[in-house]
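Problem 12. The chain below contains 166 residues. Write out its predicted structure in token notation.
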Amino acid sequence: MQNKRGYKIEDMRIPAELRPWLYAYGSLTQQLTDVAAGIFKVEPIQEHFQRLNFSDAKWMKMSHQHSSWVRESYLYGCEDQPWVKAKSIFPILSLQSRARIFQHIGKKPIGWFLFQRTNPDCERRVVLLEDGWTRQSCYTWHGCKFIVQETFLPAFEQFIQQNTSQ
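Solution.
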């Protein structure tokens, strides 16, 4: 069941300030840069290989036996505290195709490449994880499937609350 704005009733416990961010399409990189007056930074935390978990494999319609390359990073706006904890999951099959560029982007945001001259297909789910409200997006980009997970951290929530109440 949905309300007038198209949100599911169970999503109504999401803080009102975060709802537009959790359901927005397009480049989160660009959206954060816009709200932070042009300031944006990526701080990689770790990159590693691991097997797909069952849920992610099912969502991408792949065997959970497949390995994936995982990139975790913090995204910063105009404050010292990170705003978003990002995790990207690229199945090895995608890295053998056009998505291989994502494995070598260092401190550059995935969004700069993902949304450059293209609007990839995206399936979205919103969940509450230990670190905060999270949007998980399964993209199909040039035939490659991968997941980008973005958790909005308390510093971002506070920033949005302060800047929307003025």
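Discussion. The domain at 9-164 is CATH 3.40.1410.10 (Chorismate lyase). Students who got a different answer should revisit the alignment rule from Section 12.3.
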